[in-house]
Each structure stands twice: as C-alpha cells, then as structure tokens.
C-alpha cells in the first residue's frame, strides 16, 4: 500500500541525513509503528508520505503511484494526519476542527454534523458538551482525542499518527489505544504510527520498525523482534517493557509480603 523506495532526506544540503536509504512496505490494513529515540527521523518519515516534507532522493508511493504524481490537496484530504503535539486549528471550535475537511470536500451540512457527532462520541467527547469549545479550553489529552477524530473525519484509508496518545494519562491512554484498534480494524485503515512507547507499539501495531539515526535497524512483528533481534539496540529496546514489568512485580510482591507480616 505505502512504499518507501530508498528514501533519503537531508535538511542541510547533504551534510547530515534525517532519514537515509529508508526502505519499507506498509501493507493495506496494517498498523506499522515507527519506534526510536528522539531525532532519529520518525516525524520526517511520516511527513514524506503526505508531502509535508520532500525527499532528496528516492520516493514514496501509494498503491504503486508516486505521491509526487498525486495532486497534493487530494493526497492530504485522503490521508488522515494526527500531528505530534496536537496541532488543532486554534481559532476553530472542536466542531469546526473535526468538520473542516469534510466541509472542504463538499459534504452536506447534515452529513458533516452526523460524522462530527459520531467521531466525537467515539473518542469520548460528546458533541453537545465539547463541540463549541475552543482548543485552548481543552486539556492536552482531550485535544489529542479531537486530533484523532479530526484525522478520521473524511474517512481516509490511510492514517498517519505522530505520538497520538502522548499526552494521555495511563488509564485514558489504554482505553483510547483499545478503541483505536477497534476503529482501525472496522475501517480497515492502513496506519503508520510514531511512538516512543514500546509497550504501545507491541499492543497496537502489527509490525514495528525500529529506527536509529535515520535508518531502519529492524522491522518485524513484536514476537519476531523479541525472538530474533539482529542488533543490540533492538534487544535492549524490546526488553524494556518486560524488565519494567518485572521490577513492578517485585515491588508488588515486596509490598504484599510487608502487609502479610504486619
Ligand atoms: N525542518 C527542519 N529543519 C532542519 N532540521 C530538521 C527539521 N526537521 C527535523 N530536523 C532534524 O532532522 C532530524 C530528525 O528529526 P525528526 O523530527 O524526524 O525526528 P523524530 O524522530 O520525530 O524526533 P522526536 O521523537 O523528538 O519527535 C533531527 O536531527 C532534527 O533536528
Ligand atoms: Mg517527531
């Protein structure tokens, strides 16, 4: 569905590369997570799909067609994008943020309102209570939920998500992750999702591409990365959720033992 054909991007005329010789195929209906340390090129990779960033060499294609051969407006209207750090239109209400693209596409006002209501309900922010709020009147987590609703508004087949659940507390985060998986499956969305959270990638994505310094170190299912890592960094990164769970489990056992003898 989405193919990165040896894509490279330098922001300084070739002195250094944010993304280098990036080769990846994301299949239709698949959720692919990009994971890696800050500055390794995740956002740059995502933005080359909808042409917010142009590669210096190589090209990205969708269903076999280079994105350069697709009208940029059509491309962006058909690809939902959840920005890193929210990125809502600050002068638009929640309703206007979610309605913007369907309205641009010429949907009837009734259809726009229905979609808006459906999506806001889906992300737990009922239109009646939240529709008229401005982005500055929302918490960070609520704004992120609106960002997800807005990205889905025009029924895209492809969704690009940059740290979509970053500002959510753990309970809401787990809830929205679960909700997202349900939505993704029912709409058969093809998703590229950036996250720092390995546990989130393992629970939400079909495959995980581990990036370092603009390159893919390894791309596989969580099980594949855990059982056959090809790089020390991959081993270390994939072990973190388990290591932390064991530490927490030790703390819980210690707390229980203390209670027992009290
Ligand atoms: N517009 C830009 N101009 C110049 N350099 C940039 C620009 N955008 C990104 N970079 C540089 O490219 C590299 C990759 O940045 P990118 O934003 O893709 O990283 P990232 O993996 O998304 O990081 P983070 O996890 O912190 O969001 C970084 O070194 C960054 O400083
Ligand atoms: Mg980023």
Question: What topology does this entry show?
Answer:
Blueprint: E1 2-9, E2 19-26, E3 31-35, H1 42-47, E4 57-62, E5 65-66, H2 72-77, E6 79-82, H3 94-104, H4 109-122, H5 127-130, H6 140-152, E7 158-162, H7 170-187, E8 190-195, H8 198-204, E9 207-212, E10 215-220, H9 222-227, H10 232-261
Parallel strand pairs: 3-8, 3-9, 6-7, 7-8
Antiparallel strand pairs: 1-2, 1-4, 4-5, 9-10
Magnesium ion binds next to helix 1.
What descriptive keywords fit this protein?
single chain, 262 residues, alpha/beta, Rossmann fold, 6-stranded mixed beta sheet, 4-stranded antiparallel beta sheet, binds adenosine-5'-triphosphate, binds magnesium ion
What is CATH's topology name of the domain at 1-70 and 194-262?
Rossmann fold
Would you count the extended β strands for me? 10
Mean pLDDT: 92
Terminal Cα span: 60 Å
Beta-strand proportion: 15-25%
Bound molecules: adenosine-5'-triphosphate, magnesium ion
Structural class assignment: alpha/beta
